Amino acid sequence: MKYYVGIDFGGTGIKIGIIDENGKILIKDSFDTDPSKRGEDIARHIAECTEKVMSDSGLPREAIQGVGIGSPGLLNPETGQLKVVVNVPNMNDVFITRILSDILGKPAFLDNDVNAMSLGEFYYGAGKGLKHVIALTLGTGVGGGIILNGELYRGASFTAGELGHMSIARDGKSCPCGNSGCLERYVGRDGIIERFMIARNKGLDTNIEKYLDKGKITPKAIAMAAEAGDKLSIKVLEETGEILGAALATLVNALNPQAIIIGGGIANAGEFILGPARKTMLRLAYAIPAKVVKVLKAELGNDAGLVGSASLVVANLS
Ligand SMILES: [Zn+2]
Fold first, then answer.
1. How far is the centre of ligand 1, averaged over its atoms, from the C-alpha of 167 (Å)?
2. Residue 55 structural domain
3. Distance, CA 142 to ligand 1 centroid (Å)?
4. Confidence class of residue 46 from pLDDT cuts 50, 70 and 90?
5. What is the pLDDT of residue 221?
6. What is the pLDDT of residues 15-36, one digit of tens each?
7. How many angstroms separate the alpha carbon of residue 37 from the centre of ligand 1?
8. CATH assignment at residue 218
9. Which chain residues have CB less than 5 Å from ligand 1, an ion?
10. Are 54 and 5 in contact (CB under 8 A)?
């Protein structure tokens, strides 16, 4: 059996785990990182934590094939250099894979967290056994990953898959990326909450109060209210699905995938969003590719980042 190490590098913390050939997690642990330290020291700390997990696992050293690290922000997967890590600016420009590989004596691979998660779903989740898969994560931001012919498609400057920033409305709502009318502004967290507030302010009935998240309206609260039959919440999620479905139709026409996998916190609203998304996609896309594609919920849940990061090793060594 072969084993792969995954490092899910977030803003202030890291999750490290080891998976086997079937994507099963053998061991996982989490650690804090101190963003005020020098970038290279943070990288060395990550390597030391990884060393600990590798030795805690009790696995023979030679069974471990390599280490994959998924990070938010801009980076170069070919050189293993982080470019812009928004939450940990001290990590900018650090050649993280070189440091990991020097300390651990294993090949190391870097990619952005959404590409990593997409590979995880492709190998071990909802995309298992397929060749052409698109993954979308719906959360505060909306990210994407494109896998064609069994390989992650990175594009000319490693930015392919920024599906949350496909333009769906000329002169639409302004987006944190600097443009306006991006998909993220309509099906991401804030877009959903905004549409809910507008509908509620029109005086439409809702029982959302019972489901508030620490007193706040969140997509999770809206999904819980929808589950309990709240008509306004159901309508807002349905509308979210319809907007998403139109974007999916574009992807289906452009790339003819076998599956589009929807993950991220908002995907927990399940069929409230996916049902209308599927219906709208079927209506708007060409019939032949629309008939082939499946719109599926991601399967890896909270472990998506970890399994995805470890999948970078699988993708690079196979
Ligand atoms: Zn944008």
1. 8
2. 3-120+303-317
3. 9
4. very high
5. 96
6. 999 999 999 999 999 999 999 9
7. 31
8. 3.30.420.40
9. 165, 175, 177, 179, 182
10. yes
pTM: 0.94
Confidence of residue 318 (pLDDT cuts 50, 70, 90): confident
Q: How far is the CA of 161 from the centre of ligand 1 (A)?
A: 13
136 & 271 share domain: yes
pLDDT over 90 (residue 11): no
Q: How many whole angstroms from 99 Cα to the centroid of ligand 1?
A: 33
Q: 184 CA to middle of ligand 1, Å? A: 6
CB 81 within 8 A of CB 96: yes
Is the per-residue pLDDT at 12 higher than 80? no
